[in-house]
Amino acid sequence: MRLSRLLIVILLLGFAALSPLHAQSTGSPYTVVVPVADTSDAQRDQAFSTALGQVLTRVAGGQDLRSNAGYADALGQAGSLVQKFQYQRAATGLILNVEFEPGAVRRLVSKLGVASAGIKPPVLLLVQGGDGHLLNQAALASLATAAAARGTNVVYPNAAGAPDMAKVAAADPAVLATINQQYHTGLVLLGKLHGGGADWTLISGGQPQRWNSQGATPDVLLGDAGNSMVDHIGKQLNVIGAGPSEGKLWISGLASATDYANLLATLQADPSVKQVTTLGAENDAVLLYVKASVPMNGLAANLAAGGRLLLQGEPHPGADANLRWLPGH
């Protein structure tokens, strides 16, 4: 049955217009692990401040808040937002696991004047060493640490088998759909180390960003890569200073009413989306009117980064952005 026929049933069920919509986050963005030298009050308070800085960046969707009025004062009072903390021994030394109260953090982000596009999904790391084998979590520690310090989490491929890197680089829809099902992200960093340098490709919503880097040591090279990765994610996804907007999204690849309902649920989970109305349907696609707290191009990029949608080149006639729904669970 064509989506346009199923749409009639869906409209009658009340899925077509949703307002207001509510945010939904996944994972644990409010928990951070920070290395400490000892258990003194001074070290603990500094760890709280460092941890809160990371959490604020995560909850603000990766935006750099350091220049916002009130930011420094907020870090100075980080302890008042801590829900619980625990010291632990790790291979690298003493660490402090800090968990912040989610509601208090969200209120603080709002007080700092941030229009968030939502918490970014983690980045799947597929990085090959000089021998062609994928580097494991321990080998990629400096990359992950640099990314975490700026509010970006990473995940690693399952030991049972990593995705085909060539197909990921080509943005193969089936492979990207599988990555979303397994790792819940549309962000993948591909890397190839060679000598004292490396080649990098960041896949975000099916769109590649490529660069090269050099480093005196593997740790320096990977640490710089973590910072460069966050910079590239920010260029595409951050919406600092953005105001409210409204526009139209053309979304294809909807094979059933279930796909359509899941699409609306995905929009409902995005905190920047305030209202959605279905304007029409054609074959496997729908045209949606959307009100959001961020520009349409920023909204489309952030939706695609979540892993269920792909950005599709030129906008469809009459739409501000063109995306394709990926099949999934």
Give structural notes.
With 329 residues, this protein is of the alpha+beta class. The chain has helices at residues 3-13, 41-59, 71-76, 102-111, 141-148, 165-169, 173-183, 218-237, 257-268, 296-305, and strands at residues 17-18, 31-35, 82-90, 93-100, 123-128, 154-155, 187-194, 197-204, 207-214, 245-252, 273-282, 285-292, 309-311, 321-325. The protein has a six-stranded mixed β-sheet. A hairpin with a 2-residue loop joins strand 7 and strand 8. Helix 5 runs parallel beside helix 8 (218-237). It is globular and about 65 Å long. It starts with a helix and ends with a strand.
Structural class: alpha+beta
Q: What value does the Rg take, in angstroms?
A: 21 Å
User: Which regions are unreliable across 5 or more consecutive residues at pLDDT < 50?
Assistant: 1-6, 8-27
Elements, N to C (H/E): HEEHHEEHEHEHHEEEHEHEEHEE
Strand content: 25-35%
Count of helical stretches: 10
Q: Report the end-to-end length measured between terminal Cα atoms.
A: 21 Å
Please give the largest β-sheet.
Answer: 6 strands, mixed
Fraction of residues in H or I helices: 25-40%
**Overall pLDDT confidence:** 83
Outline of the structure:
This protein has ten helices and 14 strands.
Considering the chains and any ligands shown, give keywords for the structure.
329 residues, six-stranded mixed β-sheet, 10 helices, five-stranded mixed β-sheet, disordered N terminus
Layout of strands and helices, then pairs:
Layout: H1 3-13, E1 17-18, E2 31-35, H2 41-59, H3 71-76, E3 82-90, E4 93-100, H4 102-111, E5 123-128, H5 141-148, E6 154-155, H6 165-169, H7 173-183, E7 187-194, E8 197-204, E9 207-214, H8 218-237, E10 245-252, H9 257-268, E11 273-282, E12 285-292, H10 296-305, E13 309-311, E14 321-325
Parallel strand pairs: 5-6, 5-7, 10-14
Antiparallel strand pairs: 1-11, 2-4, 3-4, 7-8, 8-9, 10-12, 11-12, 13-14
Helix pairs in contact: 5-8
